[in-house]
Amino acid sequence: MPVICTNCKRPYPEDGTPYKCPKCGGLFDWDSSLAFDPARVDDSQPGIWRYRHTFGLPPTLPPVSLGEGNTPLVWAEAFGRQVAFKCEYRNPTGSFKDRGSTLIVSWLKHKQTRRAVEDSSGNAGASFAAYAARAGMQAEIYIPVTASGPKRQQIEAFGARLHPVDGSRADVTSAIRKAADGGLPYASHASLPFNLPGYATAAYEIVEQLGAFPGSVIVPAGQGGLLLGLARGFDAMRRAGVGQSLPVIIGVQARACAPLWTLAKMGMAAMQFVTEGQTLAEGVRVRFPVRGDVILQALLDCRGGMLAVDEEHILRGRDELARRGLYVEPTSAIVWNALEQALPDLPDPLVVVLTGSGYKFHAQ
Predict the structure, then answer these.
(1) Which domains does the chain have, with CATH numbers?
(2) Helix (H) and strand (E) counts for the chain?
(3) Which pLDDT tens digit goes with each residue over 183-223?
C-alpha cells in the first residue's frame, strides 16, 4: 500500500519526511484502498494496534503508543431516538487525534526524526506533543494565539515548545510552512496521509461494538481527516465482506467557517465567499481543507453530505450532551444541532462521533 503524490504520481521518497512532493509540490496519499482482513486482527496488541495490518507501515516498526482506541459507544436518547455516541474524547490526550498521532510519530521515529513541527488549533498539537514526548522527540507546536488555554497548557506540559501566532488559523499554517520549507520535519496531520489509517480504526471499532454496520454516522469536520478515515475504514470492511452497505456519513461544520459545506452545497464558485469567522468550534475552523475534493467524493460514495451549524446552537448542544453524561468541547457539540436537522432522514443504527473532551475548553 504505497504512498504517492496525487499530482505527479511519484512515490513517497525513501529519504526524508517531506509533507509535500519535492518534485511538484503535490499532496501525498495512499495509492490504494485500505486492506482490512478480520482474520488478521491481533487482539494481543494494545488499542488500535490490533489493526496494524491495515496501517501500511513497516512490519518491524515499534509502536509509539499510549493505549489509544477502544473508546466506548454510549447509547442515549436524542430527539426521541436512541443514538450511539462514539466517545473519542476518551482517548489518552482527550481527542480522536491520538489515533493518527500514534501512527505519525511511530513513522517519524522509524525515520530517526529527533525534532518535528506541527500546527494546530489545539487538539492535534496536544496529541502530537504527547506522542513525541513518548518517543523522546522534541516537538514544536504552532497554534493561534486564541487557542483554548487548557490546550496550550497541555501542549507545554508534554515538553513541547509553543509558537503562538497572531492572526487566523490559515496564518498559523503559513508560519509553520516557512519553518518546514527551511528544513524542519513537518508532522502535518492535514498534509501527511499516515494518520488516515489510524482514523479508520474508529470505523472498525464501531462495527465491532454494534455487531453490524451503522446505518448513518455524524462527525465534525475541519480538515475532514476523521470523516475520510471513517469512510475508508467502512469501505475496507465492506470489501472484506464484513458488511454490505456503506453507512450514510454526515459531516458537520460551524457556519462561521464552512468550506466543505459550501463546496457540497454550492460548488467551487462559492468558495470565494467562505470566511474564517469567529466560532466557539475552534477545532473545525479550517478555511482551506487540503483534501476537500477527496472528502466530497467519499461523501458521494456513501450517499452522505455536509451540514452547517449556527453559532447560537453550539453551547446549547454542549449542555444537552452534558445532561446525558457526555462532556465535550464546543467543536464536538456541533453534532447536536446537526442531529436535530438531519434526524428524520437518517437510518438506524445512528452513530454520532464526539471528538474532543470538555476539559479542553473554558470560556475566554
Answers:
(1) 73-95+194-360 (3.40.50.1100), 97-181 (3.40.50.1100)
(2) 10, 11
(3) 889 999 999 999 999 999 999 999 999 999 999 999 999 99
